[in-house]
Amino acid sequence: MTSNQVNSVENPASQGAAPLFSEPLYVGRPNTGDRRTFMRFVDKMFDQKWLTNNGPLVQQFEQRIAEYLGVRHCVAMNNGTIALEIAIRALNLNGEVIVPSYTFIATAHALHWQGITPVFADVDPKTHNLDPTAVRRMITPRTTGIIGVHLWGRGAPVEELQTIADEHGLKLLFDAAHAFGCSLKGRMIGGFGRAEVFSFHATKFFNTFEGGAIVTNDDELADAARLMRNFGFAGVDNVIYPGTNGKMVEVCAAMGLTNLDCIEAVIETNRRNYYAYTQALAWLPGINLIEYDEAERNNFQYIVVDVGKECPVSRDAIVAGLQAENVHARKYFWPGCHRMQPYRDLFPNAGIMLSETEQIADGVLVLPTGTNVSVAAITLIAEIMKRILSENYGK
Ligand code: T4K
Fold this sequence. Notes:
3-stranded antiparallel β-sheet
């Protein structure tokens, strides 16, 4: 039994027993570093009486992130969505921009919010990342850019996308919201394309409560992003651009600095959990865990199951069965951006070009991990799944 377990796996909550976990297990439960370190930063913040507006903790945080990723600039923001919006604007994207539909809705919204049309390209079923051939198909005279997403932290096909961008004079940006601490071909994600955007939301393995950043090696782009995140102020009383408010506050930088100190320990726990799931789920038919390339640096923050045709039970039945036991698995990123508003009405036939996306979105579930999930809990989750598969045969 785990410390959080109140019952035996033979007694399903769906038949009236108490849920197997007394406390809910969530995907995206925050990992938090040493509280006393955080409090020391907060004390310093109060002593300095500097709470926001490019304060000393934000500057320190930006420097540490830039060093960690090996990039020239980190421009910290109040969340990943604003960081995306600002990066899109700083790159002067307009007209149409090609994005995957199989991503969190913020990737598409960051464009639509600014009057730019997100054009959805299909993904590769093996990697869940943009398929370069599908990207080529979606290019029109109105296309100005491509936003690749490193989904689940696994690098997008950067070289192929760069070739396409160069051939067509397009700007290449990456939504790296999932990929902090990950590498591609030995290079840290953060230095690809014209810029990359991270999310440091509470649900990410590394968080600043809310937060995000644009990272780039392009000096001009970094200057433009800094200007835009601070209302367009180029100095006191001197506004030169219609900017917005994208500033990270000091308390968020304090959280980031604290969590940077334990980032390797969190990754190690995530790795342990990933392999515990791999072992525990190995013999379940059609329960396919996505793989991470051990030759790369991975953050292992998402435990992604592709429910295959050999599985006797639907993905939704598994999610419902787990939820009944207090295991809150998620159907990320169902149903796919193109099947959500406003895109559903704007592009009612988009699905014709997005068959892989639709199949993946209908088959994926994400399981809880992180520092709040023990190996014993993983073993029990696997037992619950085994039971759901046998009980619900054919549903
Ligand atoms: N691009 C991509 C590819 C992204 O994945 C995201 C964000 C973005 C861009 C935008 O970055 P941000 O603007 O968010 O920085 C969550 C997050 O809100 C979102 O940040 C994240 N992606 C997305 C994948 O997941 P939801 O709708 O699943 O959130 P919610 O409230 O259902 O929380 C998820 C689970 O986490 C819950 O089951 C409970 C648990 N949780 C959550 C919070 C906030 C906790 O246990 N404690 C907490 O404090 O979107």
